[in-house]
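User: Now give one protein:

AI:
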Amino acid sequence: MGSRAAREAVVLWALAFAAIVLTRAIGPISGYAKAVAAVAFLYLPGLVVWKRNEDYRDYGAHLRRWRSDLALGLGVSAAVLPLFVLGFFGFVELLQNQGRRVAGMLAPYRGAPEIALRLPDRFPAHVVDQFLVVALPEELFYRGYMQARLRDAWPGGKRFLGAQLGAAFWVTQILFAVGHLGEFHPWRLGVFFPALLFGWLREKSGSIVPGTIFHALSNLTVLVLEASFFGPR
């Protein structure tokens, strides 16, 4: 059971990753990579769940405790995102003191920042996109399906702030980070660090709802910071 569960999860991850890489590599359709990722993250585990006659609710996709899940997601966002904003200031300052090659490995930003509070263009569309096209499919696939299946393979772990974190937790977040290299830039591996909180929220609550909220709000915060420092893109 254990090795089969781990193999299944890794094979589905590899299929999703391959689909994203191939889409990006084919010029005429490279702009659809995000849509392909969303479909893969929803369809691949959905097919497995359907074949086994299981329920997505067993993988954290439920609203059984939506009030407490909403409160947890918003509470963690309120506690962490202000610290992230402060860290972004320091990170941009660090970039200005690096050579172009090193800076290009650390972030996609070019030029000196011109700081003024700005929203990215089409911000309402970004809100819908980040919640429904990015955060929800990724949380369903990684923290919902993959983290659960790897936990079947490797149960146990140590308790940390009310959540049991073991090998399944760590491998899920590593694969989440590597999965972002479908567009190959070293700085994309930085998603490993917020993924630790996404995974903890899943184990803490038993639901993907808090992680989806925090994930989407984190991405939106980055978009606002990028627009405020480097102009709308």
Summary: Strands lie at 158-160, 163-165. DSSP finds eight helices and two strands in the chain. The mean pLDDT is 91. The first helix runs from residue 2 to 25.
